[in-house]
Specification:
Layout lengths: L6 E3 L20 H6 L6 H11 L4 E6 L2 H13 L2 H5 L6 E4 L4 H9 L3 E4 L2 H6 L6 E5 L3 H6 L8 E3 L2 H8 L2
Parallel strand pairs: 1-2, 1-4, 2-3, 4-5, 5-6
Helix pairs in contact: 2-8
Amino acid sequence: MTTPKVLGVDIGNVIINNRLNDPEVVKVDEAVYASFPPSEGVFESLKTLNDYFDGEVYLISKCTEWAQIQILAWLKAHDFYTKTGIKPEHVNFVRQRNEKDAVCIKLGVTHFVDDRLEVLGYMVESTSNLILFQPDQEEVKEFKQFLPKVTVANDWNEVVKQIVR
């Protein structure tokens, strides 16, 4: 008997590429949020991973109530659920970064992908496979004590290769 595998994935900067490259953009409204592109290769990769994890893929995002509405609209507008096979009821939101760990424990998450080392730091005791996606080097410096416990991935192809070995 094999142990069940469950994947958790952050949304901002991991699925939705909302890294603001334009420093002039100080206010993100609905129109700006809707224009954020998907991370390169994310739909195909999540489809592959959803198959690999037998449909046990969950999105877990820390955001405000306003951003939650924008994220759900973005997922719908990009036909996310059809393209990836991930179920709409597998989308979870929390208001604080450290709350992602409790959601992962509840769902039995064995693998988690996030762009913040701080978030993965909360999970080092509970989730065995942590992947740091396109990390911000300043944030990594601040939470570097957790770096030995994670694997870094620079794109979605690397995420898939690290999980499906």
